[in-house]
Request: fold
Amino acid sequence: MTHEQAVYLELLARGAATEAYDRPVLLARASGAGPEQLAGLEQAKQLALRVRAELEGRRRREAELSALFETAHDLAGLRDLDDVLRAIVQRARSLLGTEVAYLSLNDPVRGDTYMRVTEGSVSARFQQVRLGMGEGLGGLVAQTARPYVTDDYFRDERFQHTESIDSAVGDEGLVAILGVPLTLGSQVIGVLFAADRRARVFEREQVALLGSFAAHAAVAIDTANLLAETRSALAELERANDIIREHSGVIERASEVHDRLTELVLRGGGVHDVAAAVSEVLGGAVEFVEERPGPARITEGHAGRHGDDWVAAVSAGGETFGALVLRERPDLDPVDLRTLERAALVTSLLLLARRSAGEAEQRVRGELLDDLLDAPDRDPGLLRERAARLRTDTDAPHVVLAARIDRAGAGAEADAGGRESADRQRLRSAASHLAATRHGLASARDGGTVLLLPLGPGESAAELARQTARHLGGALREAVTVGASAPVTAPLAHPERVGPAYDEARRCLDALRLLRRQGEGAAAEDLGFLGLLLADTRDIEGFVERTIGQVVAYDRRRGTDLVRTMDAYFASGMSPARTKDDLHVHVNTVAQRVERIGRLLGPDWQSPARALEIQLALRLHALSSAVIR
Reply:
């Protein structure tokens, strides 16, 4: 070994700076060494520098590997995601010796990447920046899954510059930036950055180092996420176990409710029995109401809160029958809520069963009335027997009523066909219910409904017609016009009387509609002289009595001459002056008599319609008086 080589070995051994390797050559040249000696020294110098660089590289790699190992160990000990992210950024800044380090994560919902953690940053705008895929250096890394490095960010044209990103980078004062992808398999979950506020060349080894560190960081992030999900799942399991333990007794109670409701249905219980049973189980007051309270969103099979009460819709097939309302229970657990919903379902089944039975009874009642109208020659004994099974009074006087829905403009267009059919069904249902309530019969007929109802004590056919019109109109919330026949004595013993009575009721119904009295109920006796034409029996005396009976009775009691005065008054064209000449009395006497007549007959007795009826009654009264004489 030469002296010169020993000098360079000594420099290597003490780790001298690069400049120290030039000194032996300079000293030899100053001492007058020859060219051969200088060439030997230069060769030894270059060899020593290569050895020195190799040793430096190995030491740096050892330091980096040691740092990576320490980082992986540190990350493995972290559990909280925020702690993991902060540790990643701090270690990246420390490893590369940069002024700033930061980390962004991809947002799969918005399709961009956003700043998550920064270290060494001083700009609020920079800390909140979002990068679209392909925008800025970070967006390019996130989109391509490849590392990118720039020595001068603002002069680099390889990536898309945007005003918002450039402004944020400018606020932070960054110049040199290195970004590497955080990847899990083939999926990029974010970008890890190291940056300086001055121009700097990031060497290939530094890019590889940050890339290796990013791989550890991605795994740590994934581990933290999985751990958080595991903790969440364990917490959910614990809550589920708590709920199971808490509600085990409630489930047993629900089973008891199911058994009780089943038993109740099998033994023919009703709606109020269901409400009583559920009240006892739930510890509140349960009531069935026909009009459902609460919001419309409480649909079939479900229950919900309405004010201080709980409401469960009682419905089936889209039709609502009402609701079960639970009071005095501010809170319900899911099982109790399901119990209330199950009780509502049972209630709807009971109501459907009751309706089916009612519809069957309606059909039987309708068939019996159809037989009375269409086959009056049937055996009256069989008809009476069928009526008795329906609890119909076979001996009381009955009235035949014809009912029809009257709506303004109805029937004018073809579209009325479907609506008219629905109206008929609704009218038939309401009439059948009324007939069952009054122990009568009802059936659909001639576009409307026909009823055969018994008269109550002291009740007239006209009163029954008005009651029926009000009842059906209120039930349907539509104008229902009802025409009534004269009372029919023992219709089941004399079925041949029912058909003519129905014809009379229809004539009354048609007369009411022609008179524009839709929505009213009337019999022939309510229609004045028109009733004489419509009724099967010409009740002349009844018409006279209803029209001018009060005046006739007044004359009979007081010995006055009001009837003759009315006759002369109308004959003279309702002129008091001509009337006094005909009666040979003073005009004041005529005025007094006209005033008295008005008090007896009402203020409208001189109106055209009333005047016509009164004049006809006067003629009939005169004819009947002549016959009697």
Notes: The CA atoms of residues 25 and 31 lie 10 Å apart.
